[in-house]
Amino acid sequence: MSTTTETSTPVEPPRQPGQDRAPMARPSLGRLWDTWGVTAILLILLALTPLFAPDFMELENLQSVLRESAYLGIVAAGMTFAIASGAFDLSVGGQLALVSVVTLMAYSAGGTAAAIGAAVATGLACGLVNAGLITRLRVPPFVATLGTLFVFRGVAYILTQDGPKTLPYDQIDSPFVKIGGLNVAGLPLPFVIMLAVYGAAWIILRRTATGRRILSYGSSPAAARFCGISENRIRVIVFALVGVSVGIAALTYITRVWTADGSAQDGFELKVIAAVVLGGTSLKGGKGTLIGTFSAVLLVSVLNDVLVSQGVPSAYQRIVLGCVLIVALTIDGLRTRFAVPGSFRRAVAGLAARPSASGGA
Predict the structure, then answer these.
(1) pLDDT value at residue 3
(2) Could you tell me where the Low complexity compositional bias lies (predicted)?
(3) CA 142 to each of CA 139, 252, 325: distance values in angstroms, whole numbers, following the listed order
(4) According to the model, what pLDDT value does residue 208 have?
(5) Nearest 5 degrees, angle CA 343-CA 348-CA 353?
(6) Best exposed site among 29, 217, 250, 354 by fewest CB in 10 Å?
């Protein structure tokens, strides 16, 4: 994987063991999991779900699952860039609440076009605020985004202190509401938007110099800086992408729920991070897989639908989400450990040799 410096001089950036381009390299356990692991689990879950939720496979329910997965999936696409660069954004839940409130205010003032513009602009502004704190004030991403999580939610609460912002019922046939309710060739429009976002994100990450620089910086910040890759530019790009993704996601979210205030989607950031890490993007940076993120988003959405349909209380749903996050972090650690081809085989051989060694002693 090659990249370029700011002066367009070809440079070969450092690669992680799991990212080597050698065509004849033997696939490792980590690579196999990154490519097929979450997708395989999703297929198994889809096959087993009808056994205890017979209504799951009905067309209307499947459309509902895809529609509900859109806003989570769109933000997860943006978060993939951030985590692949070696950072993450804890403020996306607050961003979603604030953007949703501003979007409804803009719709009341200027209609559909104003709402769409306000959503994207507000999301971008939130991302640039985070980027400014990190690049100008040198606040670590974890601290900066944890702080702005509360700031963004606080602003949303202030804007809705007289009551939540809502869409009037007489707007049910408006073009704005159809963003969340329309179907295109049997697929919900929010899901179609999600597919378009993932297509654009894949092109940026895999087919542009910007994407290669993001992965190179996440793999080794020191080496990337030595090659001329600007740390500040990478931070601005990834957090701006996260903000824009939240803006787009808010359009699919608010046109489905019709109301917004500061408490909207509490804990949303944990769902996003869990989906991205479970999908195969390493928390250490340098590796991102949008296909894995996409599959993980559907996995989380299907699991959530099953829990709701079975009447599982919200408290237990949070427990399940916490377990999913723990599993995702555990898998990330194992994936890193067994990233080098043959490492799993050597580890098994080492475990098998221990009893014989102790017996011989």
Answers:
(1) 42
(2) 1-10
(3) 8, 27, 17
(4) 95
(5) 125
(6) 354
CA distances from 317 to 94, 268, 271, 324, 357 (A): 21, 13, 12, 11, 46
What is the SS3 assignment for the chain? CCEECCCCCEECCCCCHHHCCCCCCCCCHHHHHHHHHHHHHHHHHHHHHHHHCCCCCCHHHHHHHHHHHHHHHHHHHHHHHHHHCCCCCCCHHHHHHHHHHHHHHHHHHHHHHHHHHHHHHHHHHHHHHHHHHHHCCCCCHHHHHHHHHHHHHHHHHHHCCCCCEECCHHHCCCHHHHHHHCEECCEEHHHHHHHHHHHHHHHHHHHCHHHHHHHHHHHCHHHHHHCCCCHHHHHHHHHHHHHHHHHHHHHHHHHHHCEECCCCCCCHHHHHHHHHHHCCCCCCCCCCCHHHHHHHHHHHHHHHHHHHHCCCCHHHHHHHHHHHHHHHHHHHHHHHHCCCCCHHHHHHHHHHHHHHHHHHC
CA 229 to chain centre: 24
Contact call for residues 236 and 81 (beta carbons, < 8 A):
no
What is the block-wise mean pLDDT of the chain (361 residues), using blocks of 10 residues? 43 47 50 70 86 86 94 97 95 97 96 97 98 96 96 97 91 92 93 97 95 94 92 97 98 94 91 90 86 92 88 86 80 64 54 56 51
Pick the CATH number of 27-343 from 1.20.120, 3.90.25, 2.30.30, 1.10.3470: 1.10.3470
> Residue 183 is which amino acid?
N
Q: Domain residues of the chain, as ranges? A: 27-343
Question: In the beta sheet, which residues pair with residue 187?
Answer: 184
Q: What residue has token string 């829990």?
A: 307
237: its two tokens: 């790009």
What are 259's strand-pairing partners?
166
Tokens of 276: 């991205």
Q: What pLDDT score does 310 carry?
A: 84
Contact between 40 and 250 (Cβ < 8 Å) = no
Tell me whether strands 187-188 and 183-184 are parallel, antiparallel or unpaired: antiparallel
